[in-house]
Design a protein that fits this description.
Blueprint (H helix, E strand, L loop, with lengths): L7 E10 L1 H17 L14 E9 L3 H13 L8 E11 L2 E8 L3 H14 L23 H8 L1 H4 L8 E8 H8 L6 E3 L1 E9 L5 E8 L1
Antiparallel strand pairs: 1-2, 1-7, 3-4, 3-6, 4-5, 7-8
């Protein structure tokens, strides 16, 4: 495996959901793409997932990060971790929004997040630039808002501020406001594995670096 060339890498330590969540996420993604074709499809560079930790880590220490994460996961029964999807939501960015399915947090999920944060902390970098992310020639500059979000994920989006979710796509905020007003039928789902991904634009899971079933 070739490591990213930047001194820092923007990573997402995440859980990979089962077929039931994938079905719901892909259905919502298809709907959003129909309403806003400039959005992204849930493909190999935009994998549906539940983020546990986003951080900048030193690229030279990526193997150490994987080992630390693996040690935490070895003491976790992911197959027993069942969660409930409860509603849609979106993160606004000017006239558009990044939409997703909100997952109800549990003490077990927060304990896993805390352990992973502690495991990755010795290898973290304070921040990074566009080179820390997966970019494309058509979109080479990462949104500064995303860089700030990853830099401050711990503590601003972790612990009591954690909002577990599965991102499903992008659309205009007017469309998303109407979608959020619709009834949502909660459903339960589980996980098929965990992974470390390199982040892309919109905070997507863009490149799989390491995975555990």
């Amino acid at each position: 495996m070739s490591f990213p060339k930047s001194p820092a890498t923007a990573i997402d330590i995440l859980l990979e959901p089962d077929a039931r969540m994938l079905e719901h996420a892909e259905a919502n993604n298809a709907r959003l793409l129909q309403a806003f074709p400039k959005g992204f499809a849930l493909d190999a560079a935009h994998r549906p997932h539940v983020t546990l930790v986003q951080r900048f880590v030193r690229t030279a220490d990526l193997d150490k990060v994987y080992a630390a994460v693996e040690k935490v996961l070895a003491g976790t029964r992911l197959g027993d971790l069942e969660l409930e999807a409860i509603r849609y939501y979106y993160i606004p960015s000017q006239e558009i929004g990044l939409a997703g399915i909100v997952v109800k947090s549990t003490p077990q999920l927060l304990e896993l997040q805390e352990a992973l944060i502690e495991a990755a902390t010795p290898f973290t970098a304070e921040t990074g630039d566009s080179g820390a992310f997966v970019t494309t020639p058509d979109d080479p500059v990462i949104d500064p808002q995303l860089i700030q979000y990853v830099s401050a994920f711990v503590p601003k989006a972790s612990g009591e501020h954690f909002n577990p979710h599965v991102s499903t796509g992008v659309a205009l905020r007017t469309y998303l406001d109407a979608m959020l007003a619709e009834p949502f039928e909660p459903f339960r789902f589980s996980f098929k594995g965990a992974a470390v991904y390199q982040l892309g634009q919109f905070g997507t899971a863009a490149r799989k670096l390491k995975a555990w079933d």
